């Protein structure tokens, strides 16, 4: 996937004027947040589970090497193979080598954001192997030559007419606007691919150390067909997905579906434990797990370690006012929204992704809904500080902060200017209490009015009770 993060501002402006996109984003705002709230309300212990999950994730990260080695040992014990890949290139080459071993020409894929992260599809195509996305949203995007804009609802930026148009063009069938007809079309097209595939590639929501199992969570069942019909099953996942036990896995499952789609539980929760055994009627003959690092081990023990708790539920982006206004493609890479604003600079560099952690109102909604309590605003501030320290911030930003620092270090001058600015802004908003135009703040007042300030500054108000306390 091409990196367009440096063009976030331009992409966001286009997104704000895209009528079709804004219609689709309206469906998002009315969907996931409402369903999540209802699901959480039905589970009184939800916040207690969040605390337990955050603590467990911290324990796992602190002992990541131990649990990964235990996971590897049990995968090998079950007859599978584990491949350790430090970079995206290593992971792509490993998958290609496995495909070549079985002379694969076609692979089916269950939805995996890690394969998007390493750009696996393009790599396989360049090497003569056809990847076929089987998640309905991913399948639609593949037909369009498009990329996901959301981590659990990849085609959420599209409307029904968009799907109808691409199916009519690619399937060569009569055009229909009936979702049931379109779904049946997709089933018929994909069924042939499922049967013909030489290799099935899936992601993993969790890797269980005690059993050497991987688990995928879907609502369509395509993941089951992807991993059981082909002779070879490859799991491409990242190192922080490991959990100690099956019981620990169930803790996260109770949080995942509620946070993601507002369901009590996802429809399909499927464990894979090695290749098929002699007594099994079906299943893959070969089982491979490709563990991808791609910068994650560098986060352990650092200021970004909390981000490794992420279980990819998408709650942060579902509730983010910025994502809700501009959509996922504006972020310019695989991971959008608040979680992407933290992960993307780590993976492609703050030099290319510096605009993302700045694309936040810091309203705190993302942290308040995170099922594992990741302090996303704090982590975005880390990247802002990092960008500033490397002199990557725009000159206007650096000049503004420098000017503010000059006055902030001189309290008397700062308070005098605050009072002067307060009076000036009150004059501008004297008619209706709102300021429609403000010098040096057109980026704000171009789209909304700014409330005129109160009669007194905070410091003046702060002094008032202190003075009355002394007199009493």
End-to-end distance: 68 Å
CATH class of the domain at 43-297: Alpha Beta
What name goes with the CATH superfamily of the domain at 43-297? Answer: NagB/RpiA/CoA transferase-like
Our count of helices gives 22
What global shape is seen?
globular
Helix content: 40-55%
Characterize the biggest β-sheet: 6 strands, parallel
Mean pLDDT: 93
What is the CATH architecture annotation of the domain at 43-297? 3-Layer(aba) Sandwich
Major beta sheet, strand line-up: 1-10-7-4-2-3
- CATH fold field value of the domain at 43-297: Rossmann fold
Uncertain residue segments: none
SS-based structural class?
Answer: alpha/beta
Q: How many DSSP-defined strands?
A: 12
Relative strand content: 5-15%
Radius of gyration: 25 Å
What would you note in describing this structure?
This protein has 472 residues and is an alpha/beta fold. Among the domains are: 255 residues, 3-Layer(aba) Sandwich (Rossmann fold); 65 residues, no CATH class. The chain has 22 helices and twelve strands. It has a six-stranded parallel beta sheet with strand order 1-10-7-4-2-3, sandwiched between helices. Strand 5 and strand 6 form a beta hairpin. Helix 3 crosses helix 12, helix 9 crosses helix 10 and helix 15 runs parallel beside helix 18. The radius of gyration is 25 Å and the shape is globular. It starts with 7 loop residues before the first helix and ends with a helix. The model has no long low-confidence stretch (mean pLDDT 93).
């Amino acid at each position: 996937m091409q990196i367009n993060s440096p063009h976030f501002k331009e992409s966001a402006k286009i997104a704000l004027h895209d009528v079709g996109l804004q219609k689709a984003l309206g469906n998002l705002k009315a969907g996931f947040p409402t369903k999540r709230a209802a699901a959480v309300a039905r589970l009184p212990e939800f916040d207690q589970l969040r605390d337990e999950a955050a603590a467990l994730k911290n324990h796992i990260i602190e002992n990541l090497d131990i649990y990964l080695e235990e996971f590897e040992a049990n995968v090998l014990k079950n007859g599978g193979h584990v491949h350790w890949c430090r970079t995206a290139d290593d992971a792509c080459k490993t998958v290609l080598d496995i495909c070549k071993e079985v002379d694969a020409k076609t692979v089916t894929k269950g939805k995996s954001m890690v394969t998007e992260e390493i750009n696996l599809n393009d790599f396989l195509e360049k090497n003569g192997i056809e990847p076929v996305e089987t998640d309905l949203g991913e399948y639609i995007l593949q037909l369009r030559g498009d990329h996901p804009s959301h981590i659990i609802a990849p085609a959420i930026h599209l409307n029904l007419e968009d799907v109808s148009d691409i199916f009519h063009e690619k399937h060569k069938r009569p055009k229909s606007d009936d979702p049931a007809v379109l779904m049946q079309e997709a089933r018929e097209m994909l069924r042939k691919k499922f049967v013909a595939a030489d290799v099935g590639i899936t992601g993993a929501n969790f890797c269980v150390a005690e059993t050497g199992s991987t688990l995928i969570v879907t609502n369509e069942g395509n993941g089951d067909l992807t991993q059981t019909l082909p002779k070879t099953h490859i799991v491409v996942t990242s190192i922080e997905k490991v959990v100690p036990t099956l019981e620990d896995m169930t803790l996260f499952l109770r949080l995942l579906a509620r946070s993601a789609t507002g369901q009590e539980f996802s429809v399909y929760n499927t464990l894979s434990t090695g290749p098929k055994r002699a007594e099994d009627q079906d299943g893959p003959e070969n089982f491979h797990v490709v563990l991808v690092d791609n910068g994650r081990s560098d986060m352990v023990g650092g200021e970004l370690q909390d981000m490794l708790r992420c279980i990819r539920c998408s709650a942060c982006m579902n509730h983010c006012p910025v994502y809700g206004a501009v959509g996922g493609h504006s972020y310019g890479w695989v991971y959008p929204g608040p979680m992407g604003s933290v992960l993307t600079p780590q993976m492609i560099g703050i030099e290319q992704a510096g605009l993302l952690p700045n694309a936040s109102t810091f309203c705190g909604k993302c942290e308040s809904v995170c099922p594992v309590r990741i302090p996303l605003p704090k982590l975005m501030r880390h990247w802002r500080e990092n960008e500033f320290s490397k002199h990557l911030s725009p000159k206007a930003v650096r000049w503004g902060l420098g000017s503010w620092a000059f006055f902030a270090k001189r309290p008397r001058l700062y308070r005098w200017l605050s009072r002067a600015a307060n009076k000036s802004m009150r004059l501008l908003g004297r008619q209706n209490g709102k300021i429609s135009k403000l010098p040096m703040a057109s980026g704000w007042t171009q789209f909304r009015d700014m409330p005129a300030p109160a009669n007194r500054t905070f410091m003046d108000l702060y002094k008032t009770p202190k003075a009355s306390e002394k007199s009493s």
